[in-house]
Amino acid sequence: MLPKNPSNKLETHEVFNVPSYLGDQDLWENDRALKDWTNILGGGWAVEKLKTIGKSVGSQKVFDKADKANKYVPELKIFDKYGMRINQVEFHPAYHELLDLAVSSEVHNFAWRHKKEGSHVVNAALIYMFCQPEGGIMCPMAMAYSVAPSLKSTPEIEKKWMPGILSTSYDSRDIPIEEKTGNLIGMFMTEKQGGSDVRANTTFARPLGAKQGISQEYLITGHKFFCSAPMCDAFLVLAKTEDYGISCFLVPRWKPDGTRNSLNIQRIKDKLGNRSNASTEMEFKDTYGVMVGEEGRGIRTIMDMVTGNRIYCAMSSAGIMRQALVQAIHHVSNRSAFQKRLIQQPLMQNVISDMAIETEAALALGMRVASSIDNSEHNEEEKSFARIGTTIAKYWICKRAPFLVCEALECHGGIGYIEESIMPRLYREVPLNSIWEGPGNVMALDVLRAITKDALAGQVLIKEIKSVYGADNRLDRLCDSLESLLENKNTLEVSMREITQMMALGLQGALLIKHSSKEVAEAFCASRLNNQYGGAFGTLPAETDFDSIIERAYSL
Q1: Cα gap 366→361, rounded to integer Å
Q2: Of all helices (H) and strands (E), which one includes residue 150?
Q3: Which of 91, 102, 327, 500 gives 107 a disulfide partner, CB atoms 3.0 to 4.6 angstroms apart?
Q4: Burial class (CB in 10 A: 0-12, 13-18, 19+), 534
Q5: What gap in Å lies between CA 361 and CA 232, rounded to an integer?
Q6: Contact 498, 488 (CB under 8 A)
Q7: Minimum mean pLDDT among 185-199, 215-229, 362-376: which range?
Q8: What is the number of structural domains in the chain?
Q9: 390-393-395 Cα angle (round to 5)
Q10: What distance lies between CA 72 and its chain's CA centroid?
C-alpha cells in the first residue's frame, strides 16, 4: 500500500524533485506494442478480456501482494506437531491470492480452453502482463500450461488430470484431486550429478505389479535437485527402468488408496530471486508413480512440457523488461537534473528509446513463436518454426533481459538500488529464466539439433527473414552471412551461440520491418544489425526519432 500524503517538509530540508508514486498501471492500454502484436498475430478476438486483466493485474494492490510474497518467503514444514511427516510448504497468503488471480484469469490454460486461431498468442500476452508484478507465480503456471501435450500421450492419465488443469478454480488444499476443484502439475527432471544432462540421472523405477509400460504403476527411488512449485498436486518425473532406460512418470502427492505419497522434501533452496516461489530438493523412496508415454522415451515425452516452459521463460523475460522500462520512463519523466527533465535530455532519450526497441523486439519474437504454435497443427512449416523459434526466443530474450533491467535500474540512480523500489526484485528475478529449461549452451545446441535433424527448420527460419529481403540492406547482409555460417558444417557447433544470436536478430528485424513503426524498425536495424554494435544501451544513431519511439513505448 502506498503511503498517503507523506510529509515533504522535514526538520532540515524540503523534499522536492522526486517522482510521484507510479501507483495503478494499465498493462494493456498503456502498451501500444502489446496491443498491436496481439492483433497482428491473431489474438484480437480476446481484447476485452485482455483489457480487463491489464487493469486488474497492473493495480497497486497486486504489486503490493507481490512485494509481500517475496518478503515473507515460503517455509518448509516437514512434520506436523505430532512428528508425522506431511512434506508441506507454507506460503504467505499473498502468494496464494496471486495464484488465484492467475488461475481464474486462465494464465495456465487459456490456449487449451479456447482452441481457436490466436489462442496461444493471447496466452502469451497473459504471461507478459502477469509476470510484471511478480515472476514467482509463473513457474506453476508454466508447468500447468506445458503439461497438456505430455499428458496426451497417455489417455488414461489425461482423462483423470486434464479436467483439473482446465479448471479456473485455484484450490490450494493438500488433499487428493478427487476432492479438489482444480489441480496443478509440476515437473522434476534434474539431479545433482547431471543437471541439464538428464541421461546421467540415477533415479530408477521398478514395476509395482506384473505389468510394465505405459499407464502402469511403478515405485521410484532416487532424488531430484531442483524441484520448484512443490505444492503442485502431481509432477512429471524422469526415472530409469531396468530394460528400457529413462522413462517419464506422473507422481501424485496422494496415492490411489488415499495415503500420502513419499515425496520427501529435503530443503527449500535460498535463491537469489524468485523468492516467493519455493524451489526444493526432493528424495524418493518407493514413491508411487504411473508411466506417462512409452517406456524408454521419457525425455521425448517430457520435452513437450519443456518446450511450453521455454515459451513462458521467453515471455516472462519480455514482460519483466517491459515493467523495468515503464519504471524507468516514469522516473526520468518526473525528475530533473541540470535544469531539465531527464527525459528531455538527448542522451537519456537515447537510452530509453534503445530499451524500448529492445523490449518490443523481445515481445514481437515471443508472440511470433506463440502464433506458430497456433498454426502448427495443420502446417508443417509452422510446426518446424515453432520447434526452432521457441529455442531461439528463449535463448536471446532471456540473455538480453538482465542487461536491460540493469540499465533501467541505473536510470533511477541510487533510488533504484534500495529495496523499497521494485527494481532490485526485477533485477534478481530476471536471470533465472536463462537457467530454467536449459541455460545458453543447452539452447544453442538445441538449435543445432533442430537444424540438423529437421532440414525444414532451418529453411523456414531463413524464409521468415527473407520475407522482407530488399527492405533493409543491413538485414540482407545478416541473412547472407547466416546462410554462409550454416553451410560450414565443420564449425557449426563452436559457432552456435553466434548463429543463434544472428537468427534471433534476423527474426526480430524482419518482424519489426513488417509490423512495427518505421521509427522502431529503422532504429533496430541501424543499431543491432550494425557490425560496430557493442550491446550497450543508449548507442542509437543521432538521427533516430527518439520522441516517436518513446511515445509508442508508453502511451498514456
Answers
A1: 9
A2: helix 138-151
A3: 102
A4: exposed
A5: 34
A6: no
A7: 185-199
A8: 2
A9: 105
A10: 23
Please return the burial class of 311, using the count of CB atoms within 10 Å of its CB with bins 0-12, 13-18 and 19+: buried
Q: Report how many helices (DSSP H) and strands (DSSP E) the chain contains, helices first.
A: 19, 11
Cell numbers for 133? 508484478
Cβ count within 10 A of residue 554: 19
State residue 115's pLDDT score: 87
For residue 385, being part of any structural domain is answered with no
Q: Going by C-beta distance under 8 Å and a sequence separation of 6 or more, which residues neighbour residue 207?
A: 216, 217, 218, 219
**299 contact partners, CB below 8 Å, separation of at least 6:** 198, 199, 238, 246, 248
pTM (predicted TM-score): 0.96
Domain ranges, residue 488:
440-544
Classify each residue of 424-459 as buried b or exposed e, where b means 16 or more C-beta atoms within 10 Å of its C-beta: bbbbbbbbbbbebbbebebbbbbbbebbeebebbbe
Please tell me whether residue 517 adopts helix, strand or coil conformation: coil
Point out the domain boundary residue: 269, 297, 325.
297
Query: Quick one: cell of 486?
Result: 550454416
Q: Is residue 503 over pLDDT 80?
A: yes
Phi, psi of 281 (to 5 degrees): -110, 140
Cell of 406: 540493469
pLDDT of 556 reads 64
Pairing assessment for the beta strands 245-252 and 217-228 based on DSSP bridges: unpaired
pLDDT in the model for residue 196: 82
DSSP letter string over 213-261?
Answer: STT-EEEEEEEEEEEE-TTSSEEEEEEEETTTEEEEEEEESB-TTSSBP
> How far is CA 271 from each of CA 230, 280, 294, 321, 438, rounded to the nearest angstrom?
15, 10, 35, 21, 17
Please state whether 222 falls in left (phi above 0), alpha (psi between -120 and 50) or beta: left
* Grid cell in block for residue 241: 527402468
Report the candidate in 533, 418, 430 with the shortest Cα–Cα distance to residue 474: 533
The DSSP letter of residue 87 is: E
Q: What is the pLDDT of residue 274?
A: 96
Q: Would you say residue 532 lies in a domain? A: yes
Asked whether the beta carbons of 136 and 69 are under 8 A apart, the reply is yes
Is 236 within the bounds of a domain? Answer: yes
In this structure, what DSSP letter does residue 2 have?
A: P
**C-alpha cell recorded at residue 379:** 502446417
Confidence at residue 414, expressed as pLDDT on a 0 to 100 scale: 95
Residue 124 lies in a domain: no
**How many Å apart are CA 474 and CA 26, to the nearest integer?**
36
We report the CATH number of the domain holding residue 189 as 2.40.110.20
Chain centre to alpha carbon of residue 17? 36
Q: Please choose, from the candidates 32, 94, 29, 37, the residue with its C-alpha nearest in 3D space to the C-alpha of residue 56.
A: 29
Boundary-marking domain end, from 274, 297, 320: 297
Rounded average pLDDT over 374-381:
93
Number of other CB atoms surrounding residue 100 within 10 Å: 16
Residue positions counted in the chain: 556
The phi and psi torsions of 176 (rounded to 5 degrees) equal -55, 145
Convert the pLDDT of each residue in 464-474 to its tens digit.
999 999 999 99
